[in-house]
From TrEMBL:
GO terms for molecular function: alpha-mannosidase activity; carbohydrate binding; metal ion binding. It comes from Coemansia asiatica. GO terms for cellular component: fungal-type vacuole membrane. This is Alpha-mannosidase. The lineage of its organism: Eukaryota, Fungi, Fungi incertae sedis, Zoopagomycota, Kickxellomycotina. Keywords: Glycosidase, Hydrolase, Metal-binding. Belongs to the glycosyl hydrolase 38 family. InterPro entries: Ams1-like_N (IPR054723), Gal_mutarotase_sf_dom (IPR011013), GH38_C (IPR041147), Glyco_hydro/deAcase_b/a-brl (IPR011330), Glyco_hydro_38_C (IPR011682), Glyco_hydro_38_cen (IPR015341), Glyco_hydro_38_cen_sf (IPR037094), Glyco_hydro_38_N (IPR000602). GO terms for biological process: mannose metabolic process; oligosaccharide catabolic process. It catalyses: Hydrolysis of terminal, non-reducing alpha-D-mannose residues in alpha-D-mannosides. Residues 526-605 form the Glycoside hydrolase family 38 central domain. Degrades free oligosaccharides in the vacuole. It comes from the Eukaryota. Its EC number is 3.2.1.24. It is an enzyme of class 3 (hydrolase).
């Protein structure tokens, strides 16, 4: 035979282009590799017969219910819809006798998502319709068909949504009227050798694409494919053997000993809600995980990781059979539960206690169901990471942290891949951000090479994690990915790759890489800064839930410890915390989901708040029922309970006390009787009557000769000009004017808010350039003292919105409160309130979980500038030597400080993915709190707490109440350390009558706090946040205070201390 020499070296680009043609399904597909893939395929009767039952409305019914319905015949090309509806297809399949001995697959593509069910109701595998990259159309019916197969019946649950919902572009709001076309349903047989060659060639093409001509492997790769194209004959199956012999030569060359080691882990990121509602997620979990169980069976070294205890709990509840199969594979070490938290939560908005509950619920679930806690805290997709996470993680038994999201930063490149992350209190954990910069990698050569090239700490550690598998809407690795990975494990030109448990990677690095660098403090995400503000109501409901549950748990625990008649509602409290934690998912509370998700979350919060209010009421009745509690109309006073750990003095408003007997003032706004609750003991009780207020220096409201509206008490004078701006604010004790000349506070600014792409997510730096100042249309004096003075300011906002503010000052406080109601109808605008203070500081201080962080007030560097909008919890503070002012809030998280101006972003109006985001009525509160001394010497933390946690009040008959044994008592008090906050009192999780008390150091210094309690306990221990003892402590009789007991708590800067008081 004459041999024709190949001259490919003289025309490599032609060869490469020919190869691309050879691999494509385009015009030459009859002679390309694709011509060989299918050996046989049949469709239609008698091999494939289809019937459908369409469920009514958007009902997602069970298998058992669906199969009892009436099915009607359908053909290929059937249209399913509209969006969010479900259609059950019954497929009767007859494998032809000529398929005997072959693997036979069902090809089913309804152009949307679906689940394959067995005739006896077992969920078998998920399918992803459509022609996207993430498509999955095949289900293996049998690995070897018999000579005479009986008819088989399968059910296909067709869900009318794509992997990414039903928007017309990725974040487009859902189209309610989408229909999906059923592509021809076929029984197919593939040629195994053609498939194997195809996978070889795909890997070769990726290597050729990624390498350059200066690599010998590029030339060897090209030579290989050149030879394959020469040897291949689409009409001769035997040519496949020759081709496979050629490719195997290339794959024989191994990578070197010192090559980078990639630890590959399959995953399918399933957003617990995002472009679809929670109920669809439950099905996505079953679809994705059943698919992965199939791959685990097929590929013996494959490992798959899944996070979020909530998703496992849903599987357990709705798919018990599948859950049992998952559990089996967990035991085998192939299916890996990971993360340790209830959901992959947002890490900006949730409180410190919410963080604790995420881990407590998560780790407990993993331990109870799978016998093990998670060592890796797993947040591939969350929008920024609080500086308190390392401490909380460690206190829950998690030592390792994984993310990749900071690769999305839009200003600065994060400089590390593998490093020690040091938290606010000095705790450190091992952090890895996979250098492939994605959690949805597709087992591609270029991504593996990126794992080396983009590894920023490769001088210290030659390992990396690689997360592959379709994700966000679920899916996970495909057969193709696993085929490619099996070819790339050890081949020259690529790093070494192995399937591994993430723990194996972290344990190895932890043990072998001693020189890792550290990163101190928060992992601020330089993107998605609008998520501190979008979906205002959700954020407010979260804050309300967090503090209401605090009241419930504290009051219930105290009542039970006092032996009152109350069954501690442990199960209901757990149920509610699970719901609160669920809504903290990283697309729900940040505001980046579709409208349907917020309809769900509103219902969830309504449930949480209603049930929590009921439990609070029950606890109050149990605790104070015999202390003179009576109907409001009969009340002659009020009993207040102070849940904070310091004494406090407030003006309280008691609604409905019709007689207002002896009242110095009835508040006009709601006809509530005002009283001064003076020096209410910490964690304790006081009876308050209207007549106690005589010695209070009155507050007043008046209009001065300059036309300013003035609110004035013993401590401050606040003057508002006709625009509604705070034109002057004087601390009377120091005669200090806080507003610089010509500047103002409470300036409402309406900014253009047009991000680059991610609408609900991003507030971009250029929004700062363009704004108009909104002026008041009217100001009126409402209350004139003596206990409370207030004015009402009406402000037209933009073209169609308006705001009403009640600004009030009480006789007993320096705090100026702003209660706001907004009728909000803007588009791509955001509303801010701005305060300029006569204070100079390079840093502003913002509250974070269990502490504070400081961020620059200038834009020296790009790192400073990138923080043009930052997250704060209950306050932001601007202080210099000797003085400062804090801005407090009840539900706002987006702050910024430039020079001496601090702003709070109050509302945004993005249009995708929720067209109606934040439209309509919004209400929120903020406040100004001036203080002598710098932040560290202030009571800002306490004041912000009080602004969010009102005194618990109940109407009482004064005569009975005064005789109550509880009058003036203090259940918990913290003394000798003004920097220590008692944050939580709750029952122990283990069902014992032990009480858990959580404190934290709030300002950043050591403390030696004395914790005194009136409740009778047998001892006390320090625990981790899973409530396991770590240290025994002394509980002694408190000096000179009857039966009280006390203990000393030594606490370090920003430390979270959990104590377990033994019943
Ligand atoms: Zn996500």
């Amino acid at each position: 035979m004459e041999t024709q020499m190949s001259y490919f070296q003289k025309h490599p680009d032609v060869t490469k282009s020919s190869f691309n043609t050879f691999m494509s399904k385009g015009q030459f597909k009859d002679v390309s590799i694709h011509a060989s893939i299918f050996e046989a395929r049949v469709t239609g009767s008698p091999n494939v017969e289809l019937e459908v039952y369409s469920a009514p409305e958007q009902e997602r019914m069970t298998f058992e219910h669906a199969v009892k319905q009436e099915f009607k015949p359908i053909e290929n090309g059937h249209s399913f819809g509209p969006s969010w509806t479900t259609h059950w297809v019954r497929a009767t399949l007859q494998i032809p006798s000529e398929f005997a001995g072959k693997e036979v697959r069902l090809l089913f593509n309804p152009s949307c998502e679906s689940m394959v069910w067995s005739a006896d109701g077992q969920p078998l595998q998920g399918l992803t319709g459509g022609d996207g990259n993430d498509r999955r159309h095949e289900f293996i019916l049998t690995s070897k068909a018999g000579a005479k197969e009986a008819k088989r019946i399968l059910y296909l649950e067709v869900a009318c949504n794509g992997m990414f919902g039903v928007g017309d572009y990725i974040i487009g709001p859902p189209d309610p009227n989408r229909y999906f076309t059923l592509q021809p349903v076929e029984l197919i047989v593939k040629r195994p050798k053609a498939c194997a060659l195809y996978h070889d060639l795909v890997v070769l093409s990726q290597i050729i694409d990624e390498l350059s001509k200066d690599s010998p492997r590029w030339w060897q790769g090209l030579s290989t494919v050149d030879k394959v194209m020469t040897a291949y004959d689409a009409t001769d199956e035997n040519s496949l053997d020759a081709c496979l012999a050629i490719t195997s030569e290339f794959f024989k060359a191994k990578t070197g000993d010192a090559a980078h080691q990639v630890y590959a882990i399959g995953n399918c990121h399933i957003d617990t809600a995002w472009l679809w509602p929670y109920d669809e997620t439950k099905r996505k979990i079953a679809r994705s995980w059943s698919t992965q169980l199939g791959l685990i069976e097929k590929y013996p070294d494959y490992m798959f990781a899944a996070s979020q205890a909530q998703q496992f709990e849903w599987l357990k509840e709705f798919y018990p059979g599948l859950f049992a199969r998952v559990k089996e594979q967990i035991k085998e070490g192939r299916f890996i539960p990971i993360g340790g938290t209830w959901v992959e939560m947002d890490c900006n908005i949730p409180s410190g206690e919410s963080f604790v509950r995420q881990f407590l619920l998560g780790q407990k679930f993993f331990e109870e169901n799978f016998g093990e806690r998670c060592k890796v805290f797993w947040l591939p997709d969350t929008f920024g990471y609080s500086s308190q996470l390392p401490q909380i993680m460690k206190l829950s038994g998690a030592e390792y942290f994984f993310t990749q999201k900071l690769s999305w930063n839009n200003i600065n490149k994060f400089p590390h891949t593998t490093f020690r992350w040091v938290g606010l209190d000095g705790s450190d954990v091992l952090c890895h951000m996979c250098p492939a910069e994605t959690y949805t990698a597709e087992a591609k050569a270029n991504q593996l090479i990126s794992s080396v090239k983009k590894h920023k700490d490769i001088g210290y550690t030659n390992e990396s994690l690689y997360l592959y598998g379709f994700g966000d809407g679920g899916g996970g690795p495909s057969e193709e990915m696993l085929e490619r990975l099996s070819r790339m494990k050890n081949v020259d030109a690529l790093p070494k790759v192995k399937h591994a448990h993430p723990n194996e990677f972290y344990d190895y690095v932890s043990k072998n890489s001693k020189d890792l660098v550290t990163w101190n403090g928060e992992l601020y995400f330089e993107l998605h800064r609008g998520t501190y503000t979008s979906q205002a109501k959700t954020k407010k409901q979260n804050r309300q839930s967090e503090y209401l549950l605090r009241d419930v748990e504290m009051l219930s625990a105290i009542a039970r410890s006092l032996g009152k008649d109350l069954v501690y509602p442990a199960a209901e409290i757990t149920r509610l915390w699970k719901l609160v934690c669920l809504n903290q998912f990283h697309d729900v509370i940040p505001g980046s989901s579709i409208e349907m998700v917020y309809e769900d979350s509103d219902k969830i919060y309504a449930d949480v708040l209603e049930s929590a209010r009921d439990m609070k009421e029950n606890a109050i009745v149990a605790l104070f029922g015999d202390s003179g509690m009576c109907a409001t109309e009969q009340a002659t006073g009020t009993l207040v309970f102070n849940s904070t750990s310091w004494p406090r003095t407030d003006v309280v408003a008691v609604p409905g006390m019709s007689q207002g007997l002896g009242a110095q003032q009835v508040r006009k706004q709601d006809q509530a009787t005002l009283m001064v609750a003076a020096s209410v003991p910490s964690g304790g009780v006081q009876i308050v009557s209207p007549v106690n207020d005589a010695n209070v220096v009155p507050v007043s409201a008046y209009c001065d000769s300059n036309g300013h509206f003035v609110l004035e008490n013993l401590y401050v004078t606040a003057k508002f000009n006709a625009s509604g701006h705070l034109a002057s604010f004087v601390d009377r004790r120091m005669e200090r004017e806080l507003i610089p000349k010509g500047r103002a506070g409470n300036v409402m600014r309406l900014h253009d808010d047009v991000p680059i792409f991610w609408d609900a997510w991003d507030i971009e730096i250029n929004h700062l350039h363009k704004f108009s100042v909104m002026d008041a249309s009217s100001i009126t004096i409402i209350d004139e003292g003596p206990l409370l003075a207030s004015i009402a300011i009406e402000i037209p906002v933009g073209k169609s919105s308006k705001m009403k503010q009640y600004v009030s000052l009480s006789a007993v406080s320096l705090r100026l409160d702003f209660d706001c109601d907004v009728d909000w109808h803007e588009s791509h605008k955001c509303l801010k309130t701005a305060f300029t203070w006569d204070i100079r500081s390079k840093f502003a201080t913002y509250e974070t979980q269990y502490g504070v962080v400081q961020r620059p007030t200038h834009r020296n560097t790009t790192w400073d500038m990138a923080k043009f909008e930052v997250c704060a919890h209950k306050f932001g503070d601007l202080s210099e030597f000797g003085y400062g002012v804090a801005l407090l809030n009840d539900s706002k998280y987006g702050y910024a400080t430039l020079d001496s101006t601090m702003t709070i972003t109050l509302l945004r109006s993005p249009k995708s993915p929720d067209t109606n985001c934040d439209m309509g009525h919004q209400s929120f509160r903020y406040a100004v709190y001036p203080h002598q001394g710098s932040f560290n010497e202030s009571r800002v933390v306490q004041e912000a707490y009080q602004f969010n946690v009102p005194l618990v009040q109940l109407p009482v008959d004064m005569q009975v109440a005064a005789a109550s044994e509880l009058q003036g008592s203090s259940f918990f008090a913290v003394s000798d350390a003004p920097n220590v906050v008692l944050d939580m009192v709750k029952a122990a999780e283990d069902g014992s009558h032990d009480v858990i008390v959580r404190l934290y150091e709030a300002y950043g210094g050591h403390g030696k706090a004395v914790l005194t309690t009136k409740l009778a306990f047998g001892g006390v221990a320090k625990t981790n946040i899973l409530e396991e003892q770590t240290e025994s402590l002394d509980l002694k009789a408190a000096a000179g205070s009857g039966k009280d007991q006390s203990m000393v708590v030594n606490i370090k800067p920003f430390e979270v201390v959990t104590l377990r008081f033994k019943a």
